[in-house]
Backbone:
């Protein structure tokens, strides 16, 4: 009746009649996006597939391009100006403005986010770090002498003599040099990670965070070959620098804590160790996280609704990252003996 030619397109007037006939009300945000898509068509008609994608919360690159290339300007009031919102809605709106660059993306996210699933990943990692430090007796010490063999002989810290134990390239993230180190990482992890997970989901955040942690320990094993590593800064810096864009206020609002934390790491590395010849932990893991954030992180977090497999730049950076990991593995297997590196004794 409304599409007698079965073309898959109907005019905006017929679409409005259809809604009125069936007594249906379409969310204003979704109607706004649908009309923007219609204006991108040659005849200004609404596409059935666009409508299905919109109502089923599926978006793609073509969906984004249609909005960006359309001539329609979104004239409704900005999401920030809406009133009468509850606490949870205001929180989602705040997260949208902290992490998303365009008003249409913010409205889409605000309309579709349901707190299901909740942002559990970053909270779980943080709780696990605190629990581990409690067991190790870190919570009652401001700064530890982490070059102590009694500290490094545990199953989690990375130590160059124990680099054949592959899990240490990731598990070191759960150990810290004291309450000062743990507190700074927790603050940045929660302030940056939780909003990003609310928008992008646990899977993407796991990918960025895990790649940052792994890149951090591998970077240390290649460039600071005698130093141990502890702390989650590789993952935290990957998340933080993955949002390093003009709109990303969640990242730009943390320059001072980040500077303090990195300065602390550099100072600790070159401070005379209490148990020579083992040096203090390396700060190079921070730089490994930064590199991951500025490459894979930016691509993954650039457009939250796009599929990663549709982004060629993601595959380029992923291949570069995989090549780096393979080269670092070969370096760890052969370079230490070929260069006759003098490592500190095993803890």
Residues:
């Amino acid at each position: 009746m409304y599409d007698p030619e079965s073309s898959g397109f109907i005019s905006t007037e017929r679409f409005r009649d259809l809604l009125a006939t069936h007594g249906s009300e379409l969310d204003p945000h979704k109607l706004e996006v649908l009309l923007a898509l219609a204006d991108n068509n040659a005849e200004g008609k609404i596409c059935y597939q666009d409508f299905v994608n919109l109502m089923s919360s599926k978006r793609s690159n073509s969906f984004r391009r249609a909005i960006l290339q359309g001539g329609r300007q979104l004239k409704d009031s900005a999401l920030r100006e809406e009133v009468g919102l509850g606490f949870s809605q205001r929180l989602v709106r705040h997260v949208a403005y902290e992490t998303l660059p365009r008003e249409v993306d913010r409205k889409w996210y605000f309309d579709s986010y349901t707190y299901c699933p909740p942002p559990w990943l970053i909270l779980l990692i943080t709780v696990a770090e605190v629990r581990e430090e409690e067991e190790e007796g870190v919570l009652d010490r401001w700064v530890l002498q982490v070059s102590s063999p009694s500290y490094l002989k545990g199953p989690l810290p990375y130590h160059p003599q124990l680099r054949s134990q592959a899990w240490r390239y990731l598990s070191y993230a759960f150990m810290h040099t004291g309450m000062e180190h743990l507190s700074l990482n927790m603050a940045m992890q929660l302030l940056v990670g939780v909003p990003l997970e609310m928008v992008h989901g646990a899977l993407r955040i796991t990918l960025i965070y895990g790649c940052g942690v792994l890149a951090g320990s591998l970077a240390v094993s290649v460039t600071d070959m005698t130093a141990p590593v502890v702390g989650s800064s590789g993952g935290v810096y990957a998340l933080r620098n993955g949002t390093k864009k003009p709109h990303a206020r969640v990242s730009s609002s943390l320059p001072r804590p980040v500077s303090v934390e990195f300065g602390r790491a550099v100072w600790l590395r070159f401070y005379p160790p209490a148990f020579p010849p083992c040096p203090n932990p390396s700060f190079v893991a921070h730089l490994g996280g930064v590199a991951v954030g500025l490459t894979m992180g930016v691509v993954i977090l650039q457009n939250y609704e796009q599929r990663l497999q549709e982004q060629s730049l993601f595959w380029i950076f992923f291949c570069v990252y995989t090549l780096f990991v393979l080269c670092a593995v070969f370096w760890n297997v052969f370079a230490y003996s070929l260069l006759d590196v003098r490592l500190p004794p095993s803890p």
Q: What stands out?
A: Strands lie at 9-11, 45-47. The two ends are 79 Å apart (CA to CA). Residues 312-338 form the longest helix (27 residues). The chain is about 60% helix and 0% strand.
